[in-house]
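Researcher: Here's the sequence for the chain we discussed earlier.
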Amino acid sequence: MKYPPHLLDEIRARLSVSDVVGRTVPLKRKGREFAGLSPFKTEKTPSFFVNDQKGFYHCFASGEHGDIFTFLMKTQGTTFPEAVEQLAGEAGVSLPKPQPRTRVEQQREDERTRLHRLVEAAAAFFQAALLRDDAAHARAYLEQRGLTAREREAFSVGYAPSGHAVLHDHLAQHGFSPAEMARAGMRVAGPDISRPYDRFRDRIMFPITDSRGRVIAFGGRALSKDVQAKYMNSPETPLFHKGRVLFNYPRAREAAYKAGDLLVVEGYMDVIALAGAGFAQAVAPLGTALTAEQIALLWRACPEPILCFDGDGAGRKAAYRAIDVALPLLVPGKSLRFAFMPDGVDPDDLVRAEGPAGLRRVLQGAVALSDVLFEREWAAGEGRWDTPERRAQLERNLYGFAGRIEDTAVRGHYERAIKDQLFHRFRRSPAHAKPGHTADPARGAGPGSGRWSGPGAPRGTGADAADEQWRNVAREAATPPSQRGRAPLRKLPQAGSNASRALRSSRLVANHNPRQCLEATILWGLVQAPWLLEDHAEAVADLALDMPPFIALRDEILTLHASHVSLDTVTLRTQVSSAGLQPAIALAERHSASLRDTTAIDDGERSQIERSWSNAVQLHQQQRGLQQELEDARRLFDARQDDMSFNRLAFIKRQLLELSGPS
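Model: Thanks. This is the structure I predict for it:
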């Protein structure tokens, strides 16, 4: 919803930036400002500053800039409404009441309120029951599993007594009816049940919370070996839909922003054990395969969460199911990685046996979704890809999976990567390979190699002039821009495969910075057409920008958008100029003028403006993705110094050059 500007200003007036930021970042006063280490980037010398008078923070190391609402969004993964709600509560500011509900809506809301109170009362009952004399065997089990009293308390672990009506009697004393208990999933009742009974009996109880930290359901671990279901969750209720919830998500979301990653494990005990070992950024699905809604939750906390599955057949199948769910959802910068545990070992066992270092070792070997997909399809044929027909079948299968990706930019990269990997895999295999033959994984061509390998230039027994040119490109790609200076980038060799016209006239070759021009075009488009934010505010907030002036301009525009019911160009320019960002607008206008499509943004129809602006955003995301691939390829080339890593480096550099050609 839109919040009136005066309400946001009142919250800002009551809560200083240093107070809000200081909960996360230790600050020291320096004159009129506060300084501290950046929460966005690892550093030894403070480059993060807070100014209470101006009401903002600025990080010179990462370029992050914003107010108290932005800080919560950036460090805790909250949405803007969630940040406003949280800070308004702390400031004692009343938020506008929502529109009047219909009678049916009000009844539903009243029921949800009652059920929330019921499950909270049940959670408190289970926690207290764990400390009773008749729960000694439950405490002994938890101690055997290595759970400390501190961990039990942190996760509100409890115990459900073995009686058929113990919880019922407790909740009845608090004024809840049997019907409400059944509605909340705490009681099993119905026309075919002659004697209703408590759903959870003689079980270790793990409260499940929603994204706001409110208890909505439970998971119970049976203590008796005779019980058929070792783990049991609450049924679907008005509060709980297991496909939309992740265990420990509220805690893990905040921890993920600090740790820089998010871990997905299989069970409650894994999550608790990892938290005790220093990995607070762990979540678990609730006994089922990951759903699209759960993947969306993961991406709100981390762009590439790591799924930690067992290395056995069941763990591989779980990974493969996650791939099938995720493929249609992939967008630039959002994916999954996979870290497979040693056979028969889960994360809980690993950290208790080897400590945090054992898990870190496994996480360092995490591989991309694309690699696991290729491994799956390669293994499906047991490596028997020794005939043209079988190879054609593998290619069809892989392109079929890539076709499920709805985002055109990501789908295009997958298709190019598939072609690249198939080329290298089959080139290194004899034309009539024996059944079961695979290429040497150590050279990046076998299943699970963890890299897509680019085609590059085929190499013979001697290095010719084209080979030397390719090596020059690779050396240049591996050289940081700070060491390369401002000299024009080297053109790719034309011997063997002539460069395209777009490549030869590329702005990269012409010593322009296309990404800078794209950032300028995107920001200039928002200045000229602020109405774009109505549908694209989240995409703008997620943009990874390089230039500090454009980062500051973007953040200011988003703040204005959140504060104004209707934001027009004149208001935006006036407000931005008063914030001292007029030079950033001028810079955006000047640099965006070098791209042809800018005229559509300046003078086009509404649909044409949105199309041109969206094209610039998409191209920027493609270039960011390729740049990340280039950095990964540089590190691989530095480590291996072999033909394959060199070819990969040169191949990505070529893609970047071609993508930067005139539109």
